[in-house]
## 1
Amino acid sequence: MRRLWAGAVLATIAVAAGCGGGGAGGSLPDGADVAPASSIAFVSLNTDFSSDQWRKVADLAGRFPGTPQLIAQFEKQTGLQLADVEPALGPETDGVWLDARNNGDDVVVLTKPDSKEKLDTLLEKSREKGEAATQTLQVGDWVAISGSQALLERFKTASEGDKLSGDDSFKHAFEKIDADSSVRAWVRGDFVQTAMDRGFAKNGAPPRLTHDVGDLEAIAGGAKAESGGASIELDGLIDPTPDPATFSPSLPDDIPSRALLYISTTNLDAPLRTILRLVGKSIPSFETQLGQVESVLGLSLDKDIYPLLQAEDALAIYQGTGTIPRVLFVQKVDDEQKAAALLKRLGAIAQLGGSVHVETVQLAGESVQKLTFPGTTPVTIYDGTTNGKLFVTNAEGLAEQTINGPSDSLGDDPLYKSARDAADMPGKVAAFAFGDLQDGLPVLLRLSEQSGSTVPPEAFENVKPLHSAVAYLVKDGDALRISGFQTIK
């Protein structure tokens, strides 16, 4: 059944078109009035094929040359025509997960079909094509669909009690998501957190380890088609809500353009402290071992490392030669001398191991540390400080441009600027990432070919519409929100 519904949705995306309007922002899906309050996850699809949202979805899908092939593949595998799918579904189609048993197969599909007869015809055709037996059950005006009659009966019994629409956690999380989205989803937070705690406990962690950070109430998100691409939002509702430090990105003006991937944050010391604290609670001997390592190295996290990680940082990846990309890490620092001393200390420790050659070289008029790691494929690392920044890179040219200042910076790159604008990225964020997909995806496909994988020629054609992507993290009231935009041309 899952193959049928996934294929139907994907294929119909390719051709759904028309005119009309969407729903009101922040409204709950109607299926939540049927789903049991005990459900652990809920996904709502906009299947109103006359809506403006589907017109935009169809327009975006039409930009990919592989769309007709997708439709043909769906029709061949299922024996269905798209004309069979559209009238068989109502304006909303939902997936409800009752629990996590049976490898996640305890899911019931809900729809209020425009024509029950046409839905029955659709399901009968799917059975004739070899799909697993699909059962249906009428629940009010809705039709519940599953591969198990027992599951449908369990769903009906549970739905006679409290409804998901009355669950405060569900309402609060779902109402944050744009109701015009093509797809909206919600997962119960305590279910996710309990599963994580069980996993950590198997490795010796104390019970409820993740609650040391906060109580996860819910995860919710949505995806929406826009005229120039697709937007996404993902909310994590945590009590108490973390309050991450924010920054106004400035490092893009200090690094070279043409980065295939750029990731930037601030105050890296805060998450590092949290991670080490949780590790310490999981491994009783960790704190002692960490102290011993600090003593042997002559370094202190509190005095030497953390103070250098309290400002904006960035990791940029560029196309390299062969299979190794060029990488540049930059960290703003208040005390350049202290940062330089730390780099030299780390270089000296590396050299003591006997497998690394360390020397000081001159690049762009500055003294830079050069570390050479011998081997079948030697690796060279350059590190140093300049203009209030610490940098580490495996490319001499990137080191020189960081010292001199790039002639063409990422901040002035038209693709980067247009991607930020399309994502409506605010002036201050807790973290953000930019991807140059128009150049980066072909590079990844070629690297895959070089590693021995077979990449069909049409794969290169189908990534061409993907131009760029930006995602950013902010605090939104009592939630941490990741928002982003994928440009499709």
## 2
Amino acid sequence: MSGTRVDRPIFVVGVPRSGTTVVFNTFAARPDIAWFTQHLNYLPRWPSVTVLARVTDHFPRARKSILRSDDPLRWREKARIGPVEAYPIWERYAGKRFLYESLIGERPSPEQEARLRSLIAKLVRYQGKDRFATKITGPARIGFLSGAFPDARFIHVIRDGRAVARSLIKVGFWAGTWRERSVAWRGVLGEDELARWRELGEPPLALAALQWQALIRGAREEARRFAPGRYAEIRYEDFVADPHATIDEMTAFCALPRSADPHEFLSRRVEIRDMNSPSFALSDTDGKLLDDLIGEELAELGYGEGAGAGTSGAQRLVRPFADG
């Protein structure tokens, strides 16, 4: 399509509370990556507003820091510029179903593809960058996104499902809301899984864990089918153990030149600590519940009985379907 050339966009995907924000925002500190800004979230009809992101090229301190999720936002951070997950933007350019349904195996319509390619091409141009990257939580939507961007790269951030489930039932957008009683995305859980949850008495922790498992399986299924050579996985625990090495491996996978900027950002603007330990304050009953529900998936992903530990010294980014 004339004027809509998009070169290998990068999508960081994962279940909410898996560490996608710290991983993506650090990676996106590169000087050659365009991203959705909070200004476009407010004005999704006006892609040109993202030209404001260029301010961070000249004044790095104008870019948002990454604070721990248990820290209050400092007032000055609200005025800084940084990447956002951009739900209003996706709704406008891909439709409401993109937000609220699993979209497993679905492809974009020609109209959706055209709108998305035009948008991303404009953002790259307005921000003066070479490539585009963003993060998306919930369903990975790899089939849909590959339909719009056949050369896209996908990096799946995976965190121990017990820590994720425990974190979800505590965080504000989940705890005390309808998400404790109903599936967050239509089509993620099947009737057998819902029946099992009901038999348990409908505990919110179990529902969160079952959705973690289904989202992981859905992402891997779509990756194997639509993007086997363009899909990679990293574990949150490995990023925490050695974020610098993990960022370098992500850089190589995306065929980008090594940049000092993310490493500088890590050293000066990111507060990292392993959030698995507080998340593993599980009772024996809750621990057994999660092991019964998602133990098979945990074992397949390399998580033992306790909190997942980083694999220091080993390769942190893996490509499980690259030869498929």
## 3
Amino acid sequence: MVYPKNETWYWYGNVGTTSPPREDQTPTYIEISYTLGKSVISATVGSNTYQVTINVLDYASEYVEAKIDAYIKTNVTTKTTQLEKLKAITAYPASFPYSAKYSGYISMIIFEGGDCWASSSTIQHLCEKVGIKSYIRYAANDGGAGSGHRNVIAYIDNKYYICEAGYGYTRPNRPYNVYEELLGYSTRTQKDGIIIYQYDGYDQEIFVPSSINNKAVIGIEKTVFIHGPAKTATKIILPDTITFIGNSVFNSLPNITNVIIPKNVQTIGLYVFAGSNKIEKIIVDDDNDALCSEDDILYNKNKTTIINYPPGKVKDSYEGLSSLQRFENYSFYYVKNLTKVIIPQRVKYIGEGAFGDSSVKEIYFAGDPPILCDFIFYNLNLSVYYPIASSKKWEKYLDQKFSAKAIRWYTWDPVHQNLVIIPCLMVGFIIILVIVLFILRRKNNANSGTVDFDFNKNFKNLLVVK
């Protein structure tokens, strides 16, 4: 008797494991899954060897593929254009009722129902079978969509089409829709112009257009680039028509090394660069009247507020500009190379989450305590130094953690810390100068045959106290 290779899963509620059953807990249920595919079994009887090929199939998959192939043959291949085929494909999952129980194309077809994930999985699978380039699209940013919504983006004849069959009607033959997404950008329109909230294209060097449908692109927002192929983009260029950059726009892009802020941008959102650990430079157009950059760090124009420190900047310390009065919310969030920060005396405000989840280990305050917002040291293990001259003013903070893993408070003297360098350098210079003059003097005496000091004769006398 030959049995297929299998794997046993032990389920405890919604948690499954292949480890042996727990002694102190009975599994909710046990699932045995067979390893699919072909295997060859050899058996030797006397001098003869026999080989048998066994093909283990999932008959659920076989049944579903047969159903899909029949639908394609009758409803899809009969269409003339790829767009017509795409519409026929999108109609197929909509022929089943909506059901939150099933989220894949196999379960949707077997049980004749499924959610938006199931509809998207079915559309994408049929597209693959007929040669239409597509992928399952993150659709939670769309107006009215739920937080986990999905649909499909398809690419035909240099145009992008969104395929939507996830409408939640519980009857069969539900509504579906196929519509063009211009240039691969999802947008919403305001009176002043277009705002882009998602890019679904395949470009790795992305040049955001200055207009769409003859309307100026004035803003860009949300996690616009991190869904689909664009998440591995190497370059993103924004047009001069942009006036604001919203939350999370450059968040978690692994291959972007610098960002250029156009001249008309007036505001920057929160955690815009967080998680993009290769961004070393944030550069602002010289003609921008609201923002500027110095040493590749983003500030407001008069440099009283630091807005964002590049998360991938290769430097282990940052000493704030003397003009600084404010650290913006999440300004150093997720910065990964920085270990030491010196906060200038004039700073009056440090925003929410300012240093959260960063690599910072030491923070030095040079003045009185500023306003310290929630989560400024989130998830950090660090030492914080405050001036000994204003230690009384800092006492109320010493029992607070500001969401740090661990925080140690120390006093320091920023005034003498800076001044002590000067006399030390002067003493060192004088010692070196004396040594050089002494060597030159001895060389000169050796050449002239004179001796100022005889070490051999006088060394012992130097050690004798009379």
